[in-house]
Amino acid sequence: MRRKHRATIQAIFARPVAGTLRWQDIEALFLALGAEIDEAQGSRVRVFLFGEVRVFHRPHPSPDTDKGAVAAIRQWLEANGVRP
C-alpha cells in the first residue's frame, strides 16, 4: 500500500471525524485494498470489498466526503481488520 493510501486511512480514523477528505482518495484506497467499484444510479457507487457490497454517494459539487460517510467507512474498515 502506498504512503498516500496510508495517509487516507489515518485521515479516516482521525478524531474528530474529518470533513475535508476527498472522495477520490477514498476510492483510490478502496481500489488498493482490492475493491471493485461500479457506477450505480445517479451519483451512487457500489463498492465490492470484503465479500460485501456497500453503496456510497459520490459527493458533488464539492469533492469532500461528508462526515457521516467517513464515519461509516471507518466502521466498515475497522470491522474488517483495516486500521492505521
What does this structure look like?
The structure is a single chain. This protein has a three-stranded antiparallel β-sheet with strand order 1-2-3, covered by helices on one side. A hairpin with a 2-residue loop joins β2 and β3. The chain has three helices and three strands; from the N terminus they run ααβββα. α1 (3-13) packs across α2. It has a single domain (3-79), classed as Metal Transport, Frataxin, Chain A (2-Layer Sandwich), CATH 3.30.920. Helices cover 40% and strands 19% of the residues. The chain has 84 residues and is α+β, with helices and mostly antiparallel strands. It has helices spanning 3-13, 23-32, 67-79; strands spanning 36-39, 44-49, 52-57. The mean pLDDT is 93.
**How large is the count of helical segments?**
3
CATH topology: Metal Transport, Frataxin, Chain A
Spatial extent as radius of gyration? 12 Å
- CATH architectural label: 2-Layer Sandwich
| Low-confidence parts | none
Strand order of the largest sheet: 1-2-3
Q: Could you tell me the strand content as a percent range? A: 15-25%
Secondary structure: number of strands: 3
Pfam family, one: HicA_toxin
InterPro entries: HicA_mRNA_interferase
Protein name: Hexulose-6-phosphate synthase
GO molecular function, one term: mRNA binding
